[in-house]
Amino acid sequence: MIPLRDDVPSRTVPYVNYALIAINVLAFFLELSLGAGLERFFFQAAVIPSLFTGRDGRLDLGEAIFGTFNPDLGFRLVTSMFLHGGWAHIIGNMLYLWIFGDNVEDRMGHVRYLIFYLLCGWTATFAHILSDPTSQVPSIGASGAIAGVLGAYITLYPHARVVALLPLGIFFHTFQIPALFFLGFWFLTQFLSGSLALTQETAQTGGVAWWAHIGGFLAGVVLVWIFQQRSHRPPGRDDWFERERAAYARRG
After folding, report:
1. Beta pairing partners, 6
2. What percent of the chain is modeled with pLDDT above 90?
3. Cβ distance 105 to 113 under 8 Å?
């Protein structure tokens, strides 16, 4: 299923969400310009779990967290969240961020949303390190931070409807599905894949850091309660909730 849009209106301009998408896209075109030097750049700018755990691969989480104050490791934590491994990787990530990020920013406000996004990405990174502490494979992508946005969205707007595209061979079918089911199914597939990956030699099976997705999503579900602005009525939600109440009344 490929999400196309949701039905929750946004009345504020999501400046931060736009900026995050722009930075990711610009970083990707920078990667394309590196040519043969791209692999070396990844080893210099991406998160490599073994750098955080030491040669023996044993992870002391507190030591690893405080070790990020090391300029090199701290640099990697930030830069890795804005790098991608190919066109499908960045297009998929930016599509999800475009559809779901604006409403979460609406609810949190611009500055809170930026801090929330970075914290989810940071948490996702350590979830990946915990799942595969001896890995020497560079880990890149905004997926963990975006998973946090999805966790916040499913908490704030579980009854929103997502218009999704389902490829059926050479045909395509669009349909509406509640966000609770769409994003719940997404999380279930990540969890099952991540659990299966733990039985493999590495938790980054097939080039996907499943536990970064899982950790980011759970961080979003928890952190949204801290970062949402309770005194602020989310723009666009009044009409949306009125429509929802009317729809439920008609069904009753």
Report:
1. 162
2. 55
3. yes
Angle between helices 143-156 and 179-197 (to 10 degrees): 140
The span from the CA of 58 to the CA of 74, in Å, is 20
Q: How far apart are CA 33 and CA 29, in angstroms?
A: 6
- Alpha-carbon distance of 213 to 183, in angstroms, equals 12
| CB 1 within 8 Å of CB 97 | no
Residues 4 and 98: beta-carbon distance below 8 Å = no
Three-state SS sequence of 182-233? HHHHHHHHHHHHHHHHCCCCCCCHHHCCHHHHHHHHHHHHHHHHHHCCCCCC
pLDDT of 155 strictly over 90: yes
In this prediction the pTM is 0.85
- 167-213 per-position pLDDT tens digit: 877 778 888 999 999 999 998 988 888 777 666 654 444 467 888 99
Full residue range of the structural domain in which residue 28 is found: 2-251
CATH code where residue 64 lies: 1.20.1540.10
Q: Taking the C-alpha atoms of 143, 118, 107 and 90 in order, what is their torsion angle to the nearest 10 degrees?
A: -30
Biggest CA pair distance of the chain: 63
- In the chain, the number of structural domains is 1
What is the phi/psi pair of residue 231, to 5°? -80, -5
List residues bridging with 3 in a β-sheet. Answer: 164
Under a CB-based contact definition with an 8 Å cutoff, are residues 135 and 46 in contact?
Answer: no
